[in-house]
Amino acid sequence: TRWVAMDPVDTFHFPDGSRFEVPADLETYRARLDAEFPHQREALDAFFAEVREAYFRGLMVYFRGRDEELLGDLGPLSITDVLDRHIGDRKLRLLLTADCPHWGSPPSRTSFVFDSMLRLSYFLGNFYPAGGSQAFADELARCFEERGGHILMSTAADRIELEDGRVAGVALTTDRGGLKGEHRVAAEVVVSNADLRHTYRELLPAGTVPTSAMAVLDRLRPSFPCFLVHIGLRDVSDDVLREVQGYYWRHWDPDRVGRDGLVCKIFAPTLYEPAMAPEGGQVVILQKVQEIDYGAIGDWPSHKAEVEAGMVAQLERVIPGVADRVVVRTAASARTSWRFTRNTVGAMLGWEMSPDQLGSDRPGIEGPVDGLFCVGHWVRPGGGITPVIVSAQQVAERVMRGGRRDPGLRAAAAASV
After folding, report:
1. In Å, what is the CA distance from 372 to each residue of 83, 196, 288?
2. What's the pTM?
3. d(C-alpha 293, C-alpha 298), whole Å
4. Which among 30, 72, 11 is positioned nearest to 318, based on CA atoms?
5. DSSP per-residue letters across 8-77
6. What are the tens digits of pLDDT across the range 245-295?
7. pLDDT at residue 328 tops 60
């Protein structure tokens, strides 16, 4: 896969109408912050010193398996806790948290350590895959199949089958194509990338998981769902889209991100990969995390139409007349996310990455029955591309080398699709 550099990393549009671009170079970023907030220069030095410390400690604990005690007094802190130590300026506080929607939780419930790991990683190299994000998945699939793996598309995992208390296989249903119908795949190891509540309650036979274990999952808070609008445009220039990209905030309090704080984020992937659209076309994605009472929404079509209209109105405000240039438009609500992923309330990143839901307080990769492993953002170390890859690496090592398992065992992936 080829990669295209992304610079700036992010752009923030503030309630007062100002904007700030985060450059991909850390020194340039710090210099820009110091120039705009000279009265907070010492506070910024102290804040970023703790960010660097948290970054290295977090890598060692969450990615390298060192003891959680290494986190020290930084482990229990949220982003807001550390801001309260150092930063008083309300605009600077929002600037340092304005990308919190990518966590699917407010800064007061997001781990400072986990956020620091991502915050500094952007400056090690920030890239977009040529061909779009689908190219990344396609490359993984190609490597998997070249090594003898088989992938079933349009296929749902119906249940994980057990024999004598351990995994024996998975039952699947393929919705279309030459393999349409029900299948059973015998397997001595099953790896589930699905929602843990879905895996434990619906994929495993009733009574398999102790009530106490389910109670633990029911107490964990899922991250927010993310409402998405995908729009195909014609005859809109790159310069216009570069200017309007970014997060649009209507309030200074970042903890209102999922309610009325964030209007939406505007992102145009064709700025980095023009081949994603026909010549003269552009793709724009509108994103909005939502703190909603999922169970209280009775009329999902009306909810979807209202939220979509508000996000599209924002695009019209920043690009007047853009409605006349729309070729295609689709939207996905929290309900849509749930239908396609079975994620609890359409959660975008599994459980929140809050200090009390990480490390030993987050479910591990071992399932409740022998031969079942779990990967992804519902287990340790957490959500985001790199953490879920880490969980997959850990499971692969356990399957191939760990415990009583023979390296020759066949494995089936029970991902709820």
Report:
1. 41, 12, 35
2. 0.92
3. 10
4. 11
5. SSEEEE-TTS-EEEE-SSHHHHHHHHHHH-GGGHHHHHHHHHHHHHHHHHHIIIIIT---GGGGGGGTT-
6. 999 999 999 999 999 999 999 999 999 999 999 999 999 999 999 999 999
7. yes
